[in-house]
Specification:
Blueprint (H helix, E strand, L loop, with lengths): L2 E7 L5 E7 L7 E6 L9 H12 L2 E6 L16 H18 L5 E5 L1 H9 L8 E5 L16 H7 L1 E6 L2 E6 H9 L2 H6 L4 E6 L8 H10 L4 E5 L10 H15 L21 E4 L7 E5 L2 E5 L14 H23 L4 E14 L12 E13 L3 H11 L3 H6 L12
Parallel strand pairs: 3-4, 3-5, 5-6, 6-9, 9-10
Antiparallel strand pairs: 1-2, 2-4, 7-8, 11-12, 12-13, 14-15
Length: 406
């Protein structure tokens, strides 16, 4: 599945690291996923659910909250309210760059945060929680013996899931002031509650409280046998499958772009994402790709490099031109595979080149032709390869006109 990593600005001004898993084919809908307390976007449950949803046509955005994973900021300065605000910011980012999420998903404390944020994301039609507490203050049970010291000293170190974290008095005050059930009562969105009856981290009674408070349409699915973190791969896949099937009843599937039947060439728009040193978005018509440089030269290797796109254009044009000729001549051509590489060579090593000094660009193109063709047919197809429009463009004089945007 295509996987894109980028950053967006959180409510505190920090850059938050995000990942978007998209389907191989058309995108039916966008989802926003909130991970569990002190976890991260790359926790196994989040990754597995996102990939499984992508397989069902749902693109899923997940990100690290402040001070966690690859996101900037200090975890100690974050609160439940700031996490909710960052979820709204994430939805804003999707709205601005792609399409607002119509599905909201939250795991553990992320489920409580999703319930709190849902009212501020008007496009969201379906909300799903997994092992969510009915009261955000539930998380303080993990360090209840240190609460008095934290309040007295203003902050303190606690151990959560075997890792050290600093918790401030502001965090305790914030979760104590939350009235999540009031927000659940006024949700006015389809709600799916998923919880394991044997969850020993967040008890099943939390699911009962949320279900009773919520208005219809609401559903409950038991995750019998699953643990709190959905560490079993089959459990995460099951959750994603249920969410995907359930949500289709309530969401309007994303409209698919009409095919471009015009003959005029489309513009290609390339724009910096500012998520890394070199990363760019490449947009043409309904298609959106990433361009980047390899890590060896300072990029993140999140997409093809500029010369990769040049080679891809030549390779695609070569294969398409050969296919068109084969179909027109009814040749038994099964498949064309074009492999290309770009390099620099000394001009003096090229006997047929006009340039005799310095370096030259060289593209090596290897074409594999599969099918029951005779020698003459294969020879003719190889000749046709050189007639592809991109090949002609690259081997002829090119005029590039550059001007500043008005």
């Amino acid at each position: 599945m295509p996987h894109e990593r980028f950053q967006f600005t959180g409510v505190g001004g920090h850059q938050l690291a995000a990942a978007l898993d998209t389907p191989d084919g058309p995108i039916k809908a966008y989802a926003l996923f909130a991970h569990c307390f002190t976890c991260g976007k790359d926790v196994l449950a989040a990754k597995r659910i996102a990939v499984a949803l992508a397989a069902k046509g749902i693109a899923t955005l997940r990100f690290d909250f402040t001070g966690l994973g690859s996101s900037e900021g200090d975890f100690a300065n974050s609160t439940f309210s700031s996490n909710v605000a960052d979820l709204v910011r994430a939805a804003d980012h999707l709205r601005e760059t792609r399409q607002a999420p119509t599905i909201l998903i939250g795991h553990s404390l992320g489920g409580a945060a999703i319930l709190a944020a849902a009212g501020q994301i008007p496009e969201a039609k379906a909300v799903a929680t997994i092992a969510a507490p009915s009261d955000p203050g539930h998380v303080t049970h993990f360090f209840k013996d240190q609460i008095e010291d934290i309040r007295a000293q203003g902050e303190g170190a606690v151990s959560l899931a075997g890792r050290p974290f600093r918790i401030k008095r502001e965090f305790l005050d914030d979760v104590a002031e939350q009235n999540l059930m009031a927000k659940v009562k006024s949700l006015r969105k389809a709600l799916l509650i998923m919880h394991s009856p044997t969850d020993d981290t967040v008890g099943i009674d939390n699911a009962t409280n949320i279900f009773i408070a919520a208005r219809h349409p609401k559903s409950f699915v038991s995750l019998a046998g699953a643990d709190h973190l959905l560490s079993g791969k089959q459990d995460a896949a099951y959750v994603a499958g249920v969410i995907g099937a359930w949500a289709e009843r309530y969401i309007a599937l994303a409209p698919q772009p009409a095919p471009d039947t015009g003959s005029a060439p489309r513009s290609v728009v390339v724009q910096e994402t500012r998520a890394s040193k070199f990363q760019q978005t490449v947009t043409t018509g309904p298609h959106r790709l990433l361009a980047d440089e390899p890590a060896a030269v300072g990029g993140q290797d999140s997409g093809p490099g500029p010369y990769d796109f040049v080679l891809a254009g030549l390779g695609a044009c070569t294969s398409m031109t050969m296919r068109m000729y084969a179909d027109r001549k009814s040749l038994p051509l099964d498949r064309v595979t074009v492999t290309l590489t770009h390099s620099k060579i000394y001009a003096r090593d090229c006997e047929e080149c006009e340039t005799r000094e310095g370096m030259l660009d060289q593209i090596d193109r290897v074409i594999r032709i599969d099918g029951e063709l005779d020698a003459d047919q294969r020879k003719r197809l190889m000749e046709i390869a050189d007639k592809c429009p991109v090949h002609k463009t690259l081997t002829s004089e090119i005029r590039i006109v550059t001007k500043a945007a008005e």
